[in-house]
Amino acid sequence: MSGEYNMSIRKFLKQVGVTSQQAIEDGLRGDNGSGPYEVEMVLRIKGLDIEHTVTGSIRKDEA
């Protein structure tokens, strides 16, 4: 894989990580529930037959 492909993939994944963390933090900020919260991230690439799903859980820290 070329360096240009590699850099564009890394740039996209960084954007996904940063914006996803912000969305999760915003959602948890006003929440009084205890969790854990089941989460799912789906990656689809238009033009390619790719669908990749990652699942997990998020616990809210008790502060």
Give a brief rundown of this model.
With 63 residues, the chain is of the alpha+beta class. The protein has one helix at residues 3-29, and strands at 37-45, 50-58.
What would your notes on this structure say?
This protein is α+β, with helices and mostly antiparallel strands and 63 residues long. The protein has one domain. It is 43% helix and 29% strand. Strands 1-2 form a two-stranded antiparallel ribbon. Strand 1 (37-45) and strand 2 (50-58) form a beta hairpin. The mean pLDDT is 90.
Quickly list its features.
63 residues, alpha+beta, 43% helix
Please state the overall shape, judged from the principal axes of the Cα atoms.
elongated
Following the backbone from N to C, one meets helices and strands in this order, namely HEE
Distance, first to last CA? 45 Å
Count of strand segments: 2
Structural class determined from secondary elements: alpha+beta
Strand-residue fraction?
Answer: 25-35%
Please state the oligomeric state of the protein chains shown: single chain
The profile of the biggest β sheet is: 2 strands, antiparallel
Approximately how much helix is present in the residues?
40-55%
How many helices? 1
Write the layout of secondary structure elements.
Elements: H1 3-29, E1 37-45, E2 50-58
Antiparallel strand pairs: 1-2
